[in-house]
């Protein structure tokens, strides 16, 4: 894969002086990237992934999953990492790991990740990837790690009494996740932008220090999806751990029950106004995303029929949108042997790529004995 073109482009469009953490800059860059992807999908390689901590939900689906499938179907080579080591950043033990990993593979297959075109793999099964962490750690300063706002936020919400070294350094680990396969495009949510910045820094410094005038690693770009954040049924951020999410795997009845219990407000007339009516607006948005329509239009159709009618509309929209995904999920769930085969093959492919990159890194660092 030729990454020179993208590397040159990203240097030109996002110089170090610009603040890439600024969401507006990242959105502008994403629009430029969308055009480049349409013109030449073969110039890109995507890496993206999730922690295996539970089932994926609608927030994930409209936030990033949808985008991954779109890229895969546009012809962009895709790597999907199941970040099992990363589960240990904010807890002592990774519970139900085997089960959660299989659930994740099921979710991926159900939404349309195609193992013939995309590589699904588990982080801990790729030793050469993990070995990149050592040289990469030498390229970032402790104060740079200290400044990472996403890590600060995770520390604030951590279930551990003390901050582990892994919590502190996992963005560098994530840089290895991205760079081992020389991905140049990472479709993520906004909270991941600081990690992408560390990845870009690591790539640039590695190339400067060891590249001998060339580039061993591309400087990957974040691709932000335009979908706004969905709230959970209790009005706070939709999250696996808060029990407020509509999972892809939930059945139609459970979905109806969850939406029926959703928080709304005391105003009967339904309007779309995210600033003053966050809960009602998030429900409208959910229906709108499912139906690919404008939330204002759905609000206008419901009007004075009130919250009960809104919830009926949302339930129908969600269940209809997820029906084919759920049907496929049920099919795949019957064949655990196939599931494990997908993972085994994905791990094999990821290992081959990681071994080649590690060999290159060793040669660049003069540690090829
Ligand atoms: N940090 C991501 C999450 O919490 C998971 C992840 C691990 C990831 N490595 C990655 C995402 C590399 C994108 C790229 O969900």
From TrEMBL:
The protein's Enzyme Commission number: 6.1.1.2
Listed PROSITE patterns: AA_TRNA_LIGASE_I
Pfam families in the cross-refs: tRNA-synt_1b (PF00579)
Keywords of the record: Aminoacyl-tRNA synthetase, ATP-binding, Ligase, Nucleotide-binding, Protein biosynthesis
InterPro entries from the UniProt entry: aa-tRNA-synth_I_CS, aa-tRNA-synth_Ic, Rossmann-like_a/b/a_fold, Trp-tRNA-ligase, Trp-tRNA_synthetase
Ranges where the record places region Disordered: 1-24
Enzyme superclass (EC): ligase
GO molecular function terms noted in the UniProt entry: tryptophan-tRNA ligase activity
Family of this protein: Belongs to the class-I aminoacyl-tRNA synthetase family.
Stored PANTHER family: TRYPTOPHAN--TRNA LIGASE, MITOCHONDRIAL
Protein name: Tryptophan--tRNA ligase
